[in-house]
Amino acid sequence: MIKNFTQGWLAGLAIGVVAFLFYSINLERLPDGDEFYHILAAKGLLATGEPSIGEDGRYWRGYPTTWLVAQSFSLFGPSLTAARLPSILFTTALVVSFFIFLRREASPAAAWIGAGLLALSPFILAVAQFARFYSLQGFVFFIAAWLVYHQVGRSWSLPRHALAAIPAVLLLAFATYLQPTTLLGIAGLGLWVVGAVLLPWLARPAVPARLKLSVLAGLLLAGIVAAMAAWALGLADELWARYRATMLFNELQGENFLFYHLWYMLYYPTLWTLSGVIAVLALIDRPRLAGFALTVFVVGFLLNSFAAAKSLRYILYAQPFLFVLWGLGLASMLRASHGLLGRWHDRLTPAFSHIAGRMARPVAGLFLGLALLSVVIVNPAWLRSVTMLADVAIPPQPPRENWEIAAPVLEPWFEQAEVVVTTEELGPLYYFGRADVLLSASKFAELPVATRHPFAPDFRSDVPVIPDAASLAQVMDCHASGLFVTKAKWWGEDTFAPEGTMRDVNVEQLIEARTTPLALPEDTHLLAFTWEHPDPFERPADCDALPTAGGSG
């Protein structure tokens, strides 16, 4: 037992080291816009003691991640590598925990297969190198789920169950604080707990049928009363509104119920298509564990699919449980196919004898190997992981913006322009320390209703926000010179609408009519435009109220 325990931990340590090194490849690759929230706030935290961005902006969401990034900056100095280090550590911890859990509850083969697929998955790699709170959320939720699984079904002991329940509840609360989609995972956990406790009890012949019916009727009645109370108090409407709400930038995915399905089909066409069969094999081999993983993943998958807001990161908490099923099912398939490849080889050799002669057996072996390799090749998850590490964009994902190679052209304008308008403020703040006005219908819609008016400062970055062409025209009228910068992928796309419809076409018409394009290197994936009024410039009288640089000049 001690030997097995030691081997398990050593194997877990080994896979942890490999995962950490894998996730550490090319850590200085181009950043994602949302990473700047924690990076800028971490710098503010070190400087002021608060997660400040600008003078009055505060970014409190996922504060533990900001704090960890700040500590990493203190140890290693500010950089993208240091900012991403906490995410790498927690993703590695998730992989190691996954391996130990599956090895303990199933078998070494299932653990190696499942953990290997999980560690190399582009879904997991995406959060490992992403300075955000998702890796911490995923790790915390998995540990909480492990605690729940370990305790449910064991003989009742108040001290032991309470000892496990308290940390599990605290961990789930913490994961929910980091990302509210954790509630969808809690729904799957809760459903499994009810089934794991209730179904064995209902199946016991010693329990009177009348008692079983009474308990079921009582639970049904309690559910109806709870639903009616939630409806009467308005909680049901509020929860439904939140479930079906999304930010403006994500609005187009609101009705796309196939969003996650299509991504799984894209990266894992073979495994995803055969998931039902793999789950059957897993249930035959390890019914309790497979039922646990199946319930948590399927409930999370369905609830996230029907939710309005969608992103591959939103379902991270549920993804390890899909890999539990794949690990169990593929390990079972591997055991069942013992000797099968040899028999296939023997039966395939005669098929090549008439064209390969004495070389028929090695040729048959090569053909069989290529056939098996094709199963891996047509599942391009590995290709996506490699291209992510190389920072190569593959459709449907657009390339990231490269502010660094645009800097030689943009920097003089950031220094001399009276106003800088951008459709994404965090990149300019990080690379140039300046963003005077943010043109974003989506972020304008996120402002508190009481303070939602053009040029109101964003509560996170302290940058004034405008939603439409009319406000942009006012900025142009009131400043002698200016720079407008946007992402190339947004030009011509539905991005500028204040609300409802996804676009204000007048923005592009205004920019094309009143500005001059600035030539940028092609690989920046940015567009820049400038304007300069003739000298002398007379500022209109109504410009004094604008809270932008030079607005009172």
Total beta-strand segments:
9
Going across the major beta sheet, what is the strand order?
A: 5-6-4-3-7-9-8
- Largest beta-sheet characterization: 7 strands, mixed
Counting DSSP H or I runs of 4 or more residues, the number of helices is: 24
Distance from first to last alpha carbon? 78 Å
Radius of gyration (CA) equals 28 Å
Strand content: 5-15%
Average pLDDT works out at 88
Q: What overall form do the CA principal axes indicate?
A: globular
How many domains? The number is 3
The helix content is 55-70%
Structural category = mainly alpha
Poorly predicted ranges (pLDDT <50, ≥5 residues)?
A: 495-503, 549-553
Task: Write the SSE topology.
Elements: H1 2-23, H2 35-48, E1 52-53, E2 57-58, H3 63-76, H4 80-105, H5 108-120, H6 122-128, H7 134-151, H8 158-178, H9 182-203, H10 209-232, H11 235-243, H12 259-267, H13 269-273, H14 275-285, H15 287-306, H16 319-336, H17 340-356, H18 360-377, H19 381-389, H20 403-416, E3 419-422, H21 426-432, E4 437-439, H22 441-446, E5 456-457, E6 464-466, H23 469-478, E7 481-487, H24 506-514, E8 516-518, E9 526-532
Parallel strand pairs: 3-4, 3-7, 4-6
Antiparallel strand pairs: 1-2, 5-6, 7-9, 8-9
List keywords for this structure.
3 domains; 553 residues; mainly alpha; 6% strand; globular; seven-stranded mixed β-sheet; disordered C terminus; 24 helices; two-stranded antiparallel ribbon
